[in-house]
Design goal:
The structure is a single chain. By secondary structure, the chain is an alpha+beta fold. It has helices at 3-18, 23-38, 49-57, 86-104, 120-128, 182-190, 211-216, 225-240, 279-291, 307-316, 325-334, and strands spanning 68-71, 76-80, 106-114, 133-138, 159-163, 171-175, 200-201, 218-219, 263-270. The strands form 2 sheets. A 7-stranded mixed β-sheet has the order 1-2-3-9-4-5-6, sandwiched between helices. The protein has a two-stranded antiparallel ribbon with strand order 7-8. α1 (3-18) crosses α2 and α4 runs parallel beside α5. The longest helix is centred in the N-terminal third of the chain and has 19 residues, at 86-104. The two termini are 25 Å apart.
């Protein structure tokens, strides 16, 4: 981080500490929010800070959780996050999955009673940096209607996969199963900007580019019924399996202060040489074959998931983080 990023990091850390988080937990949260800004995902960055603080103030995020880790086997652990902020629960979870995978070849960690944890790719990258293949799942508040239904129930439930690539740039696929993620719609609503066509329906089931109408309506999944099926899969893996809320029961963090979210997360970390000893050579050849394919007009390079994000991160690392006026006001109020 440059000096300006470090200054913002310190402000965020101090805000979380003023909201009763320990210095360590505040640092974990600040790291995750700054990372979102640097990789070009402001919808998961500073724009969410006020929401987290509001939920702490209303005592539905526990700033001083007693997190319990239940060892099921050398490879498997189940974590009760005690309604902690999601960043902290996920940080403990991915580190446990990494530790177990290093010992046994595979680490499987389920988490319940957590909250929104930001970008899945942030945690996947931590495992990949330890030379592990990883998958991360988490569910979210209702936004997508199950195929054939006219009421939203599934979240935008991201699917995340990461692998070492034998280069400095990891392969990180981190995608929501909606046409665009909900965070982008919220940012558009706050800044009075339109959203793309084909991304959402209003509450009457009509297509809309109005972000506020989209938030009150239904987001559309990728690939029709296939996207709806993927959202359902993630709801089962991160909600049903772990003991977290599921089936439309995850509360909206911005609008529903009636209780904790009880989001579930599932982390899987795998040693890449479990079956063969030359994974690095094979993944390198796999990527090389695809990059050599003939390209359509206007495409200079075939990129693998994670390359663009890495380039944005490197580019933004030495730039000033852009803070919209409304978010700057939030920072000033929260840093009392």
């Amino acid at each position: 981080m440059n000096t300006k990023s470090k200054k913002i990091h310190l402000i965020i850390k101090n805000i979380f500490k003023k909201h009763s988080l320990s210095s360590n937990h505040a640092n974990i949260c600040a790291n995750a929010l700054i990372n979102a800004e640097l990789v070009g995902a402001p919808s998961h960055g500073l724009s969410r800070l006020k929401m987290y603080c509001d939920r702490i103030n209303k005592k539905i995020i526990n700033p001083k959780p007693k997190i319990k880790i239940k060892k099921i086997s050398q490879s498997i652990a189940h974590i009760d996050a005690n309604n902690s902020i999601g960043f902290v629960a996920a940080d403990i979870g991915i580190k446990k999955a990494i530790s177990n995978a290093k010992k046994t070849g595979i680490g499987l960690v389920g988490i319940k009673n957590s909250g929104h944890y930001g970008l899945s790719g942030y945690y996947a990258e931590q495992a990949v940096k330890k030379n592990l293949i990883t998958m991360c799942f988490t569910n979210a508040p209702p936004a997508i209607a199950p195929h054939g239904a006219k009421k939203s129930l599934f979240g935008t439930n991201p699917i995340c996969f990461g692998t070492p690539t034998a280069s400095k740039i990891p392969f990180i696929l981190d995608t929501s199963v909606s046409v665009i993620n909900r965070g982008k719609i919220r940012v558009a609503a706050r800044t009075n900007k339109k959203i793309p066509e084909g991304a959402a329906l209003d509450k009457f089931g009509k297509p809309t580019t109005d972000a506020k109408k989209a938030l009150a309506g239904i987001q559309l999944p990728i690939a029709g019924f296939r996207g709806s099926g993927l959202a359902w899969m993630v709801d089962i893996l991160s909600g049903v399996l772990t003991g977290g809320n599921h089936g439309g029961k995850v509360k909206d963090p911005f609008d529903d202060f009636s209780g904790p979210q009880n989001i579930g997360h599932l982390f899987i970390a795998i040693k890449p040489n479990l079956f063969i000893g030359n994974y690095n050579e094979r993944i390198k050849e796999n990527i090389k074959r695809i990059k050599r394919l003939p390209k359509i007009k206007g495409v200079k390079e075939i990129l693998y998931p994670g390359q663009n994000k890495h380039r944005r991160y490197k580019k933004n690392l030495n730039k000033k983080i852009n803070i919209p006026t409304n978010i700057a006001k939030d920072l000033k109020k929260l840093n009392f």
